[in-house]
Write a structure and sequence with these properties.
This protein has 179 residues and is of the alpha+beta class. Helices cover 31% and strands 34% of the residues. The radius of gyration is 15 Å and the shape is globular. The structure holds coenzyme A (COA).
Length: 179
């Protein structure tokens, strides 16, 4: 999978009672991403950003949607709603060692509340793993708040070797991809 393949990533998956598409984020997604952010509850925002967060600015939306698919890879999960598309989840990673060759990346996710508990994050993680492996990554790193059992379980359920290091305010997870 080269950069263009990743930038055009598109897969259809089945959720509990509907289908969803897992696709590469694109610059035209700013409006949909803003709507998705507005749909997140305070608790989810806190878990994702480690604190309160105001609505993203134009620049933040540009950073989140205009990604290079080399150092920064972002996938979204979308469903059809009212004749349009809705982003119900987003996952991204930033290469922190590399990119020549890329070896480790920091990963994070968020799923809209009304779609949580249906495997959306697990599906996203599976696709990010696939892309990360294709890029040659050997590790994902994630910082998770200690109370965020849902996220910890998503990583654990993937069945990959995981190393955790707890500090006073977060759990640092290293997930090894070479299995
Ligand atoms: C953490 C978070 C991403 C998890 O998203 P999610 O889509 O609910 O996660 P999943 O659906 O994959 O897994 C959650 C549950 O769904 C269940 N599930 C239902 N259907 C499933 C399926 N088809 N496949 C896998 N799991 C499924 C799982 O068993 C799991 O239950 P458990 O937690 O009791 O073991 C989401 O809660 C979130 O966005 N939180 C706020 C942001 C955040 O914390 N980000 C993390 C920073 S890195």
């Amino acid at each position: 999978m080269n950069r263009d393949d990743i930038a055009n990533y598109f897969v259809v998956e089945k959720l509990r009672d509907r289908t969803a598409t897992i696709r590469a984020i694109k610059p035209e997604d700013k409006g949909l991403l803003l709507e998705a952010f507005k749909g997140l509850e305070t608790g989810s925002i806190y878990m994702r950003f480690f604190g309160p967060r105001k609505e993203p600015t134009e620049r933040e939306l540009a950073n989140a949607t205009e990604v290079d698919f080399i150092r920064h890879v972002a996938l979204v999960v979308c469903v059809r709603e009212n004749a349009g598309e809705r982003i119900i989840g987003a996952g991204r990673y930033f290469v922190i060692e590399g990119p020549n060759p890329p070896s480790a990346a920091e990963i994070a996710f968020a799923v809209e509340e009304d779609y949580q508990g249906q495997g959306v994050a697990s599906i996203l993680f599976r696709h990010l793993l696939r892309v990360g492996r294709e890029q040659g990554l050997s590790r994902f790193e994630a910082d998770v708040l200690p109370g965020n059992r849902k996220m910890l379980r998503v990583f654990e359920r993937a069945g990959l070797p995981v190393e955790t290091k707890a500090s006073s305010d977060s759990i640092h997870m290293t997930i090894f991809l070479n299995k």
